[in-house]
């Protein structure tokens, strides 16, 4: 549970920081939107052994606050003046006995996919935050819930949204999206919940009806250089069966990224990890007191980062070149967030996975040279 609270603090800090940095000169107290939307969809049964949890269509209600950026910062111009805000979502999961409801709170960014000055717009929403599941797994009272073992979970929402202004103040939104909730194996079981849904709702603009968008006469230059960095991380995970002990894991990454432009970086790196859960797996296989070399693992990877101002969303694909325990296979992957606190200090919140199976949340600090 401690790891979930840490994830809450770091996630909220990272995303709220970029929200506050994005205000520009349009104070959201005088120019903001209040919105409400309904959702209708279903839980995706992505594993054969969780089909019993799907009892019907899910229904949801969402309310959110957002504000428009005006280009006061150059990155806002590069992303066509995105809209940013904070949302609360309530999902009735159509299974009150084994799942209950899902309450979600997350900051988001709406990226505009077409030209700025249009009555009808196509947007892509990306949001990351937290979700509270009212009926997680319980070995005595809810043992059939093999999807999620904790109340508090990480939450991701991605949505393609079509927005049209009905009046100067009233906007109608319609879209389709995917949502995911899981705890990153902090507490088992952790198959996670994947939900697909459609949404329909309205947003009301309070304050300035027109916004004075700023545009630099000369776009900011982008130095296409290689940027090495080192990041130290740690995490907590739980092995099956549920209610077992928790194990600490530690890792060290050395990354090198090539800046392509203001939005994209590609690169790769090497990393090492020591996971106490691996020691337990050895002991379960009959190997008593495994050596350090039996537990440590090292890998190489290629990576991509999508950048939004100080925030980046990394994706890694890697292969273990040194690994003696066959548990979890030889391939590893990573998704998550990194935030540049200043020119050199990196705050890291990422999820290490092996294909579609979460291993543990990694949080830590790094230094970019």
Q: Main attributes?
A:
Porin, single chain, eight-stranded antiparallel barrel, mainly beta, 10% helix, 369 residues
Terminal Cα span: 34 Å
What is the count of DSSP helices, taking H or I runs of 4+ residues?
A: 4
Average of the residue pLDDT scores: 89
The whole-angstrom Rg is 22 Å
Task: Give a quick account of the main beta sheet: strands, pairing sense, barrel closure.
Answer: 8 strands, antiparallel, barrel
Sequence stretches where pLDDT stays below 50 over 5 or more residues? 1-9
What class do helices, strands and sheet pairing give?
mainly beta
The amount of helix comes to 10-25%
At a glance:
This protein has 369 residues and is mainly beta. The chain contains four helices and 16 strands.
Commentary on this structure:
- Residues 1-9 have low confidence and may be disordered.
- The protein is flat and about 70 Å long.
- It starts with a helix and ends with a strand.
- The protein has helices at 2-21, 74-78, 276-284, 292-295; strands at 31-44, 58-68, 83-92, 101-112, 120-133, 152-165, 170-182, 193-207, 226-238, 246-259, 264-275, 297-308, 311-322, 331-340, 345-354, 357-368.
- Helices cover 10% and strands 54% of the residues.
- The longest helix has 20 residues, at 2-21.
- A hairpin with a 7-residue loop joins strand 9 (226-238) and strand 10.
- It has two domains: 2-207, Porin; 226-368, Porin (Beta Barrel), CATH 2.40.160.
- An eight-stranded antiparallel barrel has the order 1-2-3-4-5-6-7-8.
- It is mostly beta strands.
